[in-house]
Structures are given as C-alpha cells and as structure tokens.
Amino acid sequence: MKIVARDVSKAFRDPRRSVEVSALEAMSLSVRDREFVSILGPSGCGKSTFLYIVAGFIQASGGEVLVDGRPVTGPGRDRGIVFQEYALFPWQTVLGNVMYGLREGDAREREARAREFITKVGLGGFERHYPRELSGGMKQRVALARTLAYDPDILLMDEPFGALDTQTRLLMQEELLRIWEANQKTILFVTHSVDEAVVLSDRIVVMTARPGTVKKSVEVPFGRPRVVEDLMHDVAAMDLRTDLWHLVKAEVLKGGPR
Amino acid sequence: MSPDGAKRPNRNPRPSTFRRDGESPDGAKRPNRDPRPSTFRRHGLRALKALARGYSLGLLLLLWEFVPRMGLVAADILPPFSTTIRNVGTLIMEGELQRHVALSLVRQTAGLVLGVVGGVTLGVFMAWSRGVRAFFEPLLMLTNPIPKAALIPLFMLWFGIGTFSKVMLIFVGTIIPVVISSFHAVADVSRNHLWSARAMGDGTTRMLLRVVLPAASPQVLTGIRLGLIVSLIVLVGSEMLAGREGLGWFIAYTMETGAYDLTYASMLTIAVIGFCYDRLYLALMHRLLAWKEEGA
Ligand SMILES: Nc1ncnc2c1ncn2[C@@H]1O[C@H](COP(=O)(O)OP(=O)(O)O)[C@@H](O)[C@H]1O
Ligand SMILES: [Mg+2]
C-alpha cells in the first residue's frame, strides 16, 4: 500500500462560536501504488481537509496516515500537490515556477528539465510568460508541470479543474489521463463532480456529509487507456454515474437545504 | 481562514501611481489584443498629457519670475526664479551646497536602511509569532499617530544634536510604516503559496526569501515609500532645529542671517531632491513589480 489512512479525524476550533467543528471522523482509506483514487463528496464534507492531512500541511486530531509505511509528520517531496487555484507564484515566469521545485543538477540541467515538462503539458513557447498573462486552464497546466517536474511519487490534487469552464475541464481531464497513463503515479484526486471521478479513476471513494468519513468505495471497471468521449455515452458508465449520484445526493441533502 | 483559502480576493491595493493612463483601476485583465494606439501616437499623447499636467507648474514659475520683477513684491523677500537658479549655481560652485546635501543624504540613507531592514524583519516576526505580535502591536498603535517631528526635541535630549540623533529619528520615523505594511503583507501571503513551497521541500529560510518576501513586496515597497517621505521631513526638521551642518541647518542659517535669496536657493534644492528621490523610487518599484503590471 502506498497510502494508508487509519481512523483519521479532524476537529477545527470555530473561533467565533468557541465550539469545535468536526470535519472528519474515523476516515480510513488505502491507496495502492500507482492507483488513481478519487475522493467524491459534497462540498464541506472534509475532502480538502483529508487531502491536506495526507500532504502533511495540517495535523490530524486523531488516527494516522502512513505513506510507504512511514507516518506522515509534515510535507515532503514524495507528495506533490495541485490546488484548485492561486498556487502559482505570480512573481515568477512559467519557467521560474516550474524550476522552483527542481534541486538536482546545475542551472542549465534544471532549466532543460523544466522546459521539457512545460512542453509536455502543451505550453511550449510560454516559458517567459507571467501567470497573469495565462488563462485559467494554462495556469493549471503550469501547476501540473511544476509538480510533475520534480517527480513526486504521489500526486495530491484538490479539485484542480474545479474553477475551469466545461470545455477546458474536459481537455484537462484528457491531458491528465494521457500524462498519468505515461508515467503512472499514485494519484489521490479530490472532486465533487461525479462525471470527473468516473472518467479518471480506478476507484472512487464516496464520502458522507460532515463529519466526513468513507461512505462507499466503488471500483471503476473501465480499462486503460481511456478516452473521455467514449465514456460519455457508454451505458455502463452512465449506470455508474447514476449510482454514484444517488450516493452523493443523499449526503448533499443531509447538509440541509441548498 | 476560509476553508480553501483560495477564493480570497487579492487584498493588496495597487498603488495608484502604478496606474498608467488608460489602465483599468481594478487591474482587471484586458482582452488579449486590445486596440491600443500605435507606440508613436501613445508616446505623443503621453508627452502632451505630461505637458498639460506640468503647465500649472509653469504658471507658478512665471509668477515667481515676474511678480518680483514688476516690483509687486520686494526682490529681497522674493528673489525671481532666475536669480534663485543662479544662486543655486553659485552655491554649488563654492562647494557649500554639496557638502550639506551629501551629509543630509548620508544621514537619511543610514536611517532609512536601518528602518527598512528592521521594519521588514520585525514585520515578518510579528506576522509569524503571536507573542511578538502581542508585544509590539500596542507599541506601534501608540507611536504611529505621533507626528514624528514632535519627537525631535526628545531625541536631542537623549542622543544629542549630532548625526546619531538624527539617524535614530529617521530610523523611528521609517520603521513604523515599514513594520505595519510588512506585517500585513506577510500575514496576507496566500496559504496555497506557502504550502506549495513546503510541498516542494522548502525550509523556512528559502520560503521566506523566495516566496514570502516576493509575495509581500508590493505592500512593503509602498510602506517604504511612506517611510521615505517621513524620513525627509524629520531629517530637515531636526537639522533646522539643531546642529550646524546639513541642508535643514543651511535653510535655518540663511533665514537667521537674513540671506533670504539663499533660503530660496536651498529650498528649491530640497524640493528638487525630494521629487527626484520619489521618482527614482517609483521607477525602482516599477521594475521590481513588473510581474504585477499589465501589458508587459
Ligand atoms: N481552518 C479551518 N478552520 C475551521 N474550520 C474549517 C477549516 N478548514 C475547514 N473547515 C471546516 O471543515 C469542514 C470541511 O472543510 P473542507 O475540508 O474544506 O471541505 P471540502 O473540501 O470537502 O469542501 C467545513 O465545514 C469547513 O468549514
Ligand atoms: Mg475543498
């Protein structure tokens, strides 16, 4: 097992009401090496919180997370993160951003490696651009390149395409599939989109409403390489989406009126 | 902190001086290829506008020149502009002016550098440590509203009337706006930026130098600009009140001895220095913050 989470819980102190908000409760989850697992759940159920605990950004209130058998005590270069937004350094060019995490080799080698990954995500020619000059989709490509370039074993992705328009989002999903199929990392992918989870994952973990825990773990039976369009009209995929939607819907409604 | 920290709007106000003509004030992204006028026309237009902005100044200088010439005011109370320029020239030739200007600038630079280094350091510590913040925040709130010129006598009492006393005064005058702006800027650095740096293996030092300070730089540089203005005010004020060197002292001296023509000459010098200083600083800010600007 690449990642093992056992009974992870997290309570936040709400400073205004001086009460504890329980975000996660007894969340357990295992991810195999090179598996693509999506975490699906209504917003506010603790998906990001769980991911940040695995990343080592915040500490769990209870339980433990093991990566390669070792307990997580903080962030590490074995786990790369891609956020939904605002993670690129706006004071650096595309090249500067992608080079940021590179440590090996001299400046020339690092630049060459960064350029290679910029090209890989389809942004060749934009090396000297600043993030503000890029569209949302391009920014996420850079964010992906920045994380892939220093080669972490695990990718932790927190709704990375959540802020993009539908078309861009589909393109990015294809892009991610293509990249992942080529260099098979372990991916833990947070999303609130049923469609996205079905298209991308080997397995989907559906979470309950807050306090979040695993409601159900669902295997996705479609082979690889996958083509996003083929799954749009595939009957089995439609059934899977319907089942998943029923699971999620029950949790959405638990959260109260929307 | 919002749960995702992501949707927080950018709270850094863009200093208005960054806005060039025709730019949208909110820094909103322009459509890609907007139909701007050609470079040539744009420059021509800009020159015209600059001229238009400068014309009130021209009018003032004309008045300065001709009011005393026409005898409306006695020329020893208000020597004409051209005479004042000539006096500046004479003072420079005699080597008198440079000496005072140099000393004043040395004092000002020393105080400013100390204030900036101390201010940014303290601002970072305040943003990162509750204890440090709890200690310094009341002190800052207390001292910030005091007009720094009012501290001049106190500093004379404590540190004498020499360069040290003046440098300390400038230090205090500049550190306060720099601390306040750095503290807010550092506390505002996006959580995702910090976490991204950590995820890529950064230790505190690398993250501070390569993420926190660049992210905070727009606000910090604006704070330093405020400090710059304060530094010139307290410098000249303290020199006028005490000592026997420096530009401020020179002004006071010419007043006391009734050499009003030289008073005007030295005041003109100060005005030009202050203006150039500010422009140079703005140009530096422009360069450092090029990543933030539009249309680059
Ligand atoms: N730093 C925090 N302080 C207090 N409450 C928080 C904090 N972060 C998250 N929460 C709360 O924990 C719950 C789960 O949040 P989150 O993990 O961001 O949900 P999701 O990513 O599934 O939308 C939410 O109710 C949220 O308000
Ligand atoms: Mg989230």
Description:
The complex is a heterodimer of chains A (about 260) and B (about 300). Chain A has helices spanning about 45-55, 95-100, 105-120, 135-150, 165-185, 195-200, 230, 235-255; strands at about 5-15, 20-30, 35-40, 60-65, 70, 80, 155-160, 185-190, 205, 215-220. In chain A, about 35% of the residues lie in helices and about 25% in strands. The N and C termini of chain A lie far apart (about 40 Å). Chain A is an alpha/beta fold and about 260 residues long. The longest helix of chain A is centred in the last third of the chain and has 20 residues, at about 235-255. Chain B is built from ten helices and no strands. Chain B has two domains: about 40-75, no CATH class; about 80-295, MetI-like (MetI-like fold, Orthogonal Bundle), CATH 1.10.3720. Chain B is an all-alpha fold. Chain B starts with about 40 loop residues before the first helix and ends in an 8-residue tail after the last helix. At the A-B interface, α1 and β6 of A face α7 and α8 of B.
What is the fold's blueprint, element by element?
The complex is a heterodimer of chains A (258) and B (296).
Chain A: E1 3-14, E2 19-31, E3 36-40, H1 47-55, E4 62-67, E5 70-71, E6 79-82, H2 94-99, H3 107-120, H4 136-149, E7 154-158, H5 166-183, E8 186-191, H6 194-200, E9 203-207, E10 214-219, H7 228-232, H8 235-254
Parallel strand pairs in A: 3-8, 3-9, 6-7, 7-8
Antiparallel strand pairs in A: 1-2, 1-4, 4-5, 9-10
Chain B: H1 39-69, H2 81-94, H3 96-128, H4 130-143, H5 152-159, H6 163-187, H7 191-199, H8 204-241, H9 247-256, H10 260-288
Helix pairs in contact in B: 2-10, 3-4, 3-6, 3-8, 3-9, 5-6, 6-8, 8-9, 8-10, 9-10
Bound molecules: adenosine-5'-diphosphate and magnesium ion.
Structural class, from helix and strand content of chain B? mainly alpha
The total beta strand count of chain A reads 10
Spatial shape of chain B: flat
Strand % of chain A is: 15-25%
How far apart are the first and last residues' alpha carbons of chain B, in Å?
A: 33 Å
Which structural class is indicated by helix and strand composition of chain A?
alpha/beta
Tally of separate helices of chain B: 10
For the secondary structure, the number of strands of chain B is 0
Strand content of chain B: under 5%
